[in-house]
Design goal:
Largest sheet: 7 strands, mixed
Strand order of the largest sheet: 5-4-3-6-7-9-8
Mean pLDDT: 87
Shape: elongated
Number of domains: 3
Radius of gyration: 25 Å
Distance between the termini: 53 Å
Helix content: 25-40%
Number of strands: 21
CATH topology of the largest domain: Rossmann fold
CATH class of the largest domain: Alpha Beta
Low-confidence stretches: 152-159
CATH architecture of the largest domain: 3-Layer(aba) Sandwich
């Protein structure tokens, strides 16, 4: 059925016919080797390849005994059964009442206990989250999310219950709604993690950026592809740097200096409305405009953390992706200028600088502190600068701070049992895109063909033996 089609007697009869189909017998093998025998009623989602894929990342290390677990859209209950066997305290929910009954039956026949609720998050208010998630917070939330766009079944391929299991709800999307719940409610415990599958047929590659835009840290931790070209990913989401100070100063000499005063509070961040002596690379003054975001993060405090140009590129590439996702602009309009500047296409059609970032290392005795400073024009630019407003983003420094905080945590926060991931290929692709839009480059008075990015973040230039790591050695003719 389509979302606009009236549910009439013929549809009801067709759905009754579906419900009268024979249940299927399924044996599902969990990652720990245990097999679960299941009877899957019609319209209930059975264990499939995507179930196995999500299960593969739910290792015993990520699910220690007594973990408070919630599975949204539990279907047959396979993942929740596995979690219960590992000693988790299981809750689960599904909007399909047959799935609720199916999961309860499977728990009973395996001698396991769980709280199984009917309902789930969606675009309309249907009681508090306690209705479908219980009145508690969770250490792990899991959802194999519906992977088809809201309008994918407009020609009426499935019945209402099956359609609800496979399709998203509306243009906002269930992934974004879960991110909003994590950001604004106590669904997750302070150090809890949500694991959601996303498909290239749905939110796909913009999943992390969608989470960041809601103030939630997110990191893609696994990928798999199918023969038809569909790619599934598991995205881990958490609340960024819980307990670290998030401070606002009306005026500051330098937010980099201020954040160092918070030694030991890894992830602490300071934002200022006015920065009187902000500094850029090589001690140059940091130019900013009214309403701009000016902030810093303490990323490391302790014994050495060797940061390199690669870290600047990771931040720059992530910021490029974030702004593209939030603005709907293309690679032609939002790009990275190696190694630390963001360029946006302004209203006059010209690419201009909108942001710059700087890593700074400060040593005090044996302690070593690494600070990230970031300046971003929000409302206005100048003759040679532009702002987020020029690409259609209407926000404020205060509102964008939690978005950037989530992005930074996604890149650098050490989270137990989560890999530190950002594809080097993604970073290199953003550098090369910037070269194609802002170049050509001149190095040592000769045209420079950039072949790629070295592991430290330096440019690899054809015919040059040593990687180029000094930005002042390169001239950008397009600028």
């Amino acid at each position: 059925m389509s979302g606009d089609e009236t549910f009439e007697a013929a549809h009801a009869e067709a759905e009754i016919e579906r419900l009268n189909r024979t249940a299927k017998s399924v044996v599902w093998k969990a990652p720990n080797g245990e097999s679960f025998s299941m009877q899957i009623p019609p319209t209930v989602y059975p264990p499939r390849e995507d179930t196995d894929f999500l299960a593969s990342v739910l290792t015993p290390q990520r699910l220690p005994p007594k973990t408070r677990w919630l599975e949204i859209g539990c279907g047959s209950g396979a993942l929740s059964l596995y979690a219960a066997r590992l000693g988790c305290r299981v809750s689960a929910c599904d909007i399909n009442p047959l799935a609720v009954a199916c999961t309860r039956a499977h728990f009973s026949q395996n001698g396991l206990s769980a709280e199984i609720y009917e309902g789930g998050p969606g675009p309309r208010t249907d009681g508090r989250s306690a209705q479908w998630g219980g009145d508690q917070t969770y250490d792990v939330v899991v959802w194999n999310t519906p992977y088809l766009a809201a309008d994918a079944l407009s020609n009426g391929v499935l019945g209402p219950m099956e359609e609800a299991a496979l399709t998203d709800t509306d243009h906002v999307g269930l992934f974004a709604r879960v991110a909003q719940l994590i950001a604004t409610t106590s669904l997750l415990s302070d150090h809890g993690i949500a694991y959601l599958t996303v498909s290239s047929k749905g939110v796909g590659q913009a999943a992390c950026e969608t989470a960041w835009s809601n103030g939630v840290a997110a990191r893609c931790i696994a990928n798999t592809s199918f023969e038809d070209g569909e790619q599934l990913s598991v995205v881990a989401m958490w609340r960024p740097y819980v307990g670290a100070p998030v401070l606002h100063r009306p005026t500051a000499a330098s937010t980099n200096d201020d954040v160092v005063d918070l030694i030991g509070a890894t992830g602490a961040t300071v934002r200022a409305d006015v920065q009187t002596t902000g500094r850029g690379r090589r001690g140059r003054s940091w130019l900013s405009f009214s309403g701009a975001f000016m902030g810093s993060w303490l990323l490391h405090s302790g014994r050495g953390w060797p940061h390199a140009t690669r870290d600047q590129l990771r931040v720059g590439a992530a910021l490029v992706r974030l702004i593209r996702a939030m603005s709907g602009r293309s690679e032609q309009d939002v790009c990275l200028k190696w190694p630390n500047d963001l360029y946006l296409r302004s209203s006059d059609g010209v690419l201009k600088k909108a942001a710059g970032l700087l890593f700074e290392a400060v040593s005090q005795g044996e302690a070593h502190h690494v600070i990230l400073g970031l300046g971003l024009n929000i409302e206005t630019g100048g003759e040679h600068h532009t702002s987020l407003r020029d690409v259609g983003l209407s926000t404020s420094s205060a509102d964008f701070h939690p978005v950037l905080h989530a992005m930074v945590a996604s890149l650098f926060q050490q989270v137990a049992h989560l890999p530190q991931t950002m594809s080097s290929g993604d970073v290199e692709a953003e550098v090369l895109n910037g070269v194609s839009l802002l170049g050509p480059l001149i190095y040592r008075n000769k045209s420079a063909f950039v072949q790629g990015v070295e592991s430290s973040g330096s440019l690899m230039i054809e015919g040059v033996d040593e990687p180029v790591d000094e930005p002042d050695d390169v001239t950008w003719l397009g600028l």
